[in-house]
Amino acid sequence: MPDKQQQEQQLESFNSDKFVSIYSNSVNLDVTPWDFKFVFGGLVGQGPNKPPKIENRVEVVMSPQHAKALLNIFTTHLHEYEKRVGEIKLPQPQPPVEQPFVKAH
Q1: Is the residue at 53 inside a domain?
Q2: Residues 36-67: pLDDT tens digits?
Q3: Does residue 98 fall inside a structural domain?
């Protein structure tokens, strides 16, 4: 029976012809008992007279078990990154921008 290292070496990874690479600065998460759904997008349309909008670009759905494995991978890699580069600082939340009340007819 092959050991774990031999099994990992047998895996070949390649990009399908449908492979997409995107930059995302927004993610929404929807959780059900059966799956985790991540919707990745980007901030668009932000300007002095334009409210910011999020353009949804790709959806990834996975089992809770896969999501937990992904969490472990993220945690490990973030800790290693912070050891090398320093703590990742998160921006302070901004107060919501007041929108003028518009009465629907």
Answers
A1: yes
A2: 999 999 998 777 888 889 999 999 999 999 99
A3: no
Based on its alpha-carbon atoms, the radius of gyration of the chain, rounded to whole angstroms, reads 20
Answer yes or no: is 69 within a domain. yes
Distance from C-alpha of 47 to C-alpha of 51, rounded to nearest angstrom? 7
pLDDT digits (tens, 9 = 90+) for 54-103: 999 999 999 999 999 999 999 999 999 999 999 999 888 877 666 555 55
pTM, rounded to two decimals? 0.69
> What's residue 101's pLDDT?
56
d(CA 39, CA 22): 12
Q: Name the nearest CA neighbour of 42 among 31, 52, 51, 32.
A: 52
Say how many C-beta atoms besides its own lie within 10 A of residue 102's C-beta: 6
Overall number of domains in the chain:
1
> How many Cα atoms occupy the beta-carbon half-sphere of 78 within 13 Å?
9
Structural domain for 50, as ranges: 22-85
Report the SS3 class of residue 19.
Answer: coil
Q: What is the rounded distance in angstroms from the CA atom of residue 5 to the CA atom of residue 83?
A: 26
